[in-house]
Amino acid sequence: MGEREETLFLSTAYLEGAFPGLRNTPYDITSPQTPTYNCIAWAAGDSRRWWWPKTPYFWPEGIPFEETLDAFVRAYGTLGYVRCDTGDREAGVEKIAIYISASGIPTHAARQLGTGMWTSKLGCEHDIAHTVDGLAGRRYGRIGAFVCRPRE
Amino acid sequence: MSTMVSMHSCKAVNGEAWKLGVSSDSADIRTRLMNAQQHLATPVSRQTVDEIFEELAATWKEETMFESSATALIAHPAYLRIVGLGRQVVPLLLKSLDAKPDHWFAALTALTGADPVAASDRGDVARMAEAWVRWGKERRLFS
Q: Of A34-38, A63-67, B21-25, which range is least confident?
């Protein structure tokens, strides 16, 4: 087994252990591991920075430094996103799902692809393509809000 | 050899108290033995700071690998223990950043009081790492 194959094999085992929802839903690893950007940035289309409302990380100007769903919705609002009701695929619309913990603190974000699948950056690990429910569960909690904007 | 003799009360097999003469050398050996036994019974770390750091860093990476929350990253017990190692760990954090960007920024600021990252580079992990490495090299904190 080659080095790349071994890395992907180990990651698959880790991923499915951490996110049991991936075991029975389609997903694909789409990038190497990197600690340089996180899911909040990746959902916003930024693969250069780590977004979080905490110094010394990036957070959009004018948005409260709060770990609340409202602050995260407003952060994506700086890019033209507004709240929407569902994550259903709609032609010409780009959506982001914001996951929250049981206590309502944002834990993760995923962006919908044109295919209807979702793309996520998993912490310091890989980007993956997945179903929106594939990452819901013990670790990232449930989806607290969807935001959307016209697809560019 | 010293002729000093101390008297100790002992219990004889038949239950009667009797006196036993013990030389000062013998008493000294007994004290050393007790100290050695106490030392063996007390848990002490024989790991170097480098080894402790590597171990804690590996635990932190493994247990936070899927975290996007900066709060969760720096509140992890292993991260806090690294900060608890004090300023002696600063060269190791800088050396780690020099090898590969990672989230040691909060630890470095906590330990040094410095924040060399430009406001325009907030969140840019690669540039933040570069700023800290440059800061450390200017102060010859690591090679």
A: B21-25
Identify the closest residue of chain A to B115 by CA–CA distance. A56
Nearest to B83 by CA among B63, B117, B64, B60: B60
Taking CA A90 as the corner, what is the angle to CA A85 and CA A91, rounded to the nearest 5 degrees?
Answer: 150
Contact A51, A59 (CB under 8 A): yes
Classify B95 in phi/psi space as left (phi over 0), alpha (psi -120 to 50) or beta. alpha
Contact B70 A52 (CB under 8 A): yes
Cross-chain CB nearest to A40 (options B68, B124, B125): B68
Do the chains contact at A56 and B106, CB–CB below 8 Å? yes
Assess contact for A66 and B131: CB atoms under 8 A.
no
Note the pLDDT of residue A5. 47
Chain A: give the shortest CA distance to residue B50, in Å. 22
Q: What are phi and psi of A112, to 5 degrees?
A: -80, 135
What is the pTM for the complete model shown? 0.81
Q: Please list the ranges in chain B whose pLDDT falls under 70.
A: 1-20, 42-45
